[in-house]
Amino acid sequence: MNARPLLAALAALVFSCSSAAEDGYDLWLRAAAIKGARADEVRSHISEVVLPEGGSEVLRCAGEEFRRGALRALTQDVPVEKAPAREGSVVLGTPASSPVVAGLALPLQSLGDEGYLIRSQIVGGKRAIVIAANSDVGVLYGVFQFFRLVQSGQPLGALDVSSRPSTKIRLLNHWDNLDQHVERGYAGQSIWNWHKLPGWVDPRYTDYARANASIGINGTVLTNVNANATSLAPAYIEKAKALSGALRPYGIRIYLTARFSAPIELGGLKTADPLDPGVRAWWKAKADEIYAAIPDFGGFLVKANSEGQPGPQDYKRTHADGANMLAEAVAPHGGVVMWRAFVYSNETPTDRAKQAFDEFVPLDGRFNENVLVQVKNGAIDFQPREPFHPLFGAMPKTPLMMEFQITKEYLGFSTHLAYLGPLFEEALDADTRVKGGKKGVRPTVAKVVDGELHGYKYTGMAGVANIGSDRSWSGSIFDQANWYVYGRLAWDPELSARDIAEEWVRQTFTNDPAFVKPVVEMMMGSREAVVDYMTPLGLAHLMGTGHHYGPAPWVNDLGRADWNPTYYHRADANGIGFDRGPAKDGKGGSDAISQYAPEVARQFGDVKKTPEQFLLWFHHLPWSHRVSSGRSLWDELVVRYTRGVESVAKMQATWEGMKPFVDEERFKQVGDYLAIQHEEAQWWRDACIAYFQSINKLPLPDGYAPPKHPLEYYKSLRFPYAPGRT
Ligand code: GCW
């Protein structure tokens, strides 16, 4: 592309954006103009950019990103050169694309296919910064990292940064339907406009790709796991192809969900039995057809025999039979199959928390090489807090992918401020204590997922996206941080949630410490606040039926026992909690704890050793049980519910004090949402206390206010139009 028109366009963009309202569209890539002495410092390090000539689309994007970043930061264009012409140049490229980079003999080997290196060094006698990689996409990631440093006020004088991703497949999963409804979506409609594709390729797709590439995401599953076979029809493959064209320049591959019964629904076959030769041939031909249109198609994600989805068990075959059939179809093209472990059945008499493990562990070693089993972080379902899923560590011969939920189905949709970094971090850092993995590697969930423990060939993470057609993408400004932290942790699960929060705050708002410190603090405590006002002490799944909005711990009459909140909390006049310890005398626990490695099982099996945050997840205890504070279990629950509401009030006060640092539009939206959150936290507290008190008849501890309304009031509330329903 000719440089002049591009820069003119970029300049127009910058100047038009500077007067536009801050509606969050620019995300963490907002790149505010840098002022004062810092601007002089930055300018001295990016006086020009040295770009390889030609190169791939991806490399061209890396160059454009650099120039865009520089223009935004300094409101002034940087000259493009072929070799360093002056002090303070930035050299971009790979040894293959750039003779300048090739001449530097950089230590690139350890960076793998996607890593990058950023370092200050003399090039051609001039002081320079080099951003180099083995691959073009590595350079792109390096450019984004460089601007993260620029925009978060880091010194640029002596850079020596290198990084490579810990997992190979770093995906968003969109639960987006073809009619643009997003299941569990709280940010408007799907951004994929299937109706207008392939003729209209919305420029927003490019912005989506940039945002994802900036945090290292390299793939996206476009369609809902509750799948529609139509997404594999020829017309939709054409549409997906057009989308892949928009995402590819940023290193993003596309994937689709595969409805297991598609051979019947689309192909007119009589069966979808995975061992039927006709069915196998149909999938093979379908894969060939997709790859002919989209040569770098990533593969399929499948939800089978779960919540009504068809699957191999409909034909008395196993999950491995189903997955392997699809894996064979995509293998010649280098594709993968991600098979979800989120299976549970009302007919199975065991604890729902045990079922995925029981189903999948016996299949370890029976999946084809290009199958990954995708496991939610906890054994139930994306609750505000769950212990880690016992499958992690229990399938050494099968690559296990992590599935996190970025969209806050169970944490207050997009109006509650809940930074999920600590939730993700807690799951990744959990020590599985399994034996038999690589020596010297602490067997954390992260080390299972990144493949180090068991030497998986493929590794990956998936995050259920919180992206929609709202201008702010994620339904609120602070929900953007959850997309951001997911991507950063998928790249490097060892990063700290706090550091990532700080990075995000600096780029999204300001580097002023008077803002950064309190806002990071507020974010770090926000998830715990939700746990307190919704499901303290290991409670789970008390949300309203279907939509999961608001409290409904009383519900006990749904079609499936394991959809009832009463199934999860098991409160009665004597006590509360789910006994997951061993069964005694035909009574007692579900024995889910025995699915963990022995040391973990011993800990979770012992009331005194169980971390209090999981107390009622693993134990059914009398209301009078003493907890570590010295209070009774009942009093402690009331205290925590109340503390959750108070935490939100504190968040409101913190935010009030931030007015001088934030533009009017974002300040107001965050403040108004916090007010909604405060009201709803109070609702959660009051409804849960009213309900549990109706069962145990106990008084509230001194000084704690009774619920504002009688229980019947809370029970009478209905929300027929709550967003995101199935
Ligand atoms: O959390 C539950 C959701 C369903 C979802 C399911 C799943 C896509 O309530 O909406 O379906 O999990 O993960 O498959």
Helix coverage percent: 25-40%
* Largest beta sheet: strand ordering: 7-8-9-10-11-12-13-14
Which percent band covers the strand fraction?
Answer: 5-15%
User: How far is it from the N-terminal to the C-terminal residue, by CA?
Assistant: 45 Å
* Secondary structure tally: strands: 18
| Distinct small-molecule ligands in the complex | 4-O-methyl-beta-D-glucopyranuronic acid
**What is the CA-based Rg, rounded?**
26 Å
Low-confidence stretches: 11-19
Rounded mean pLDDT score: 96
Q: Which characteristics define this entry?
A:
single chain, 726 residues, alpha/beta, eight-stranded parallel barrel, six-stranded mixed sheet, 22 helices, globular, binds 4-O-methyl-beta-D-glucopyranuronic acid
Structural commentary:
The chain is of the alpha/beta class and about 725 residues long. Helices cover about 40% and strands about 10% of the residues. It has helices at about 5-20, 35-45, 55-75, 100, 135-150, 205-215, 235-245, 260-265, 275-295, 320-330, 350-360, 420-430, 445-450, 475-490, 495-510, 515-535, 565-570, 600-605, 615-620, 635-655, 665-695, 710-715; strands at about 50, 80, 90-95, 115-125, 125-130, 160-165, 170-175, 220, 255, 300, 335-340, 370-375, 400-405, 460-465, 575, 585, 585-590, 620. The protein has an eight-stranded parallel β-barrel with strand order 7-8-9-10-11-12-13-14. Strand 1, helix 3 and strand 2 (about 80) form a beta-alpha-beta unit. Helix 15 (about 495-510) crosses helix 16. The longest helix has about 35 residues, at about 665-695. It is globular. The structure holds 4-O-methyl-beta-D-glucopyranuronic acid. 4-O-methyl-beta-D-glucopyranuronic acid binds next to loops.
